[in-house]
Specification:
With about 120 residues, this protein is an alpha/beta fold. It has one domain. About 20% of the residues lie in helices and about 15% in strands. The protein contains four helices and six strands; from the N terminus they run H-H-E-H-E-E-H-E-E-E. The strands form two sheets. A three-stranded mixed beta sheet has the order 1-3-2. A three-stranded mixed beta sheet has the order 4-6-5, with no helix packed on it. The protein is globular, with a radius of gyration of 15 Å. About 15% of the residues are buried.
């Protein structure tokens, strides 16, 4: 899977399906639903899917990863830690959104992620 991601030609328009589309536009399910969720259609994007805990855990385990860091989804606080398990566990997915007051109407905060010594 990681090899497929590294082979993507990122100098092209994002297609409406396939791995490049999913990397850009797939969104995590709401936390309550994601705990037992797999995949479902994403009508908000009109492409790609929502994803839940099960496929994320499989991807992380198979590729020996700790978490997925992603963007492209407004979060009111500028970020969201998708723990989908114990509240003190490291998040399976972390959404970072760096545009404050997106489109002049969301009144959201912005965030950045700083990794220091390979930890948050």
């Amino acid at each position: 899977m990681l090899d497929q991601i590294n082979e993507i030609d990122r100098k092209q328009e994002i297609p409406l399906d396939g791995i490049f589309c999913d990397l850009m536009w797939a969104d995590p399910m709401e936390d309550e639903e994601a705990v037992h969720g797999d995949f479902k259609e994403n009508p908000e994007r009109d492409c790609s899917n929502y994803f839940g805990k099960k496929p994320v855990k499989q991807l992380l385990r198979k590729n020996k990863l700790l978490s997925i860091f992603r963007g492209h989804q407004v979060k009111q606080e500028g970020f969201h830690m998708h723990r989908w398990g114990a509240k003190d566990s490291f998040p399976y997915v972390i959404t970072i959104f760096s545009a404050p007051n997106y489109c002049g109407s969301y009144k959201n905060k912005a965030s950045v992620l700083i990794l220091k010594n390979a930890s948050l």
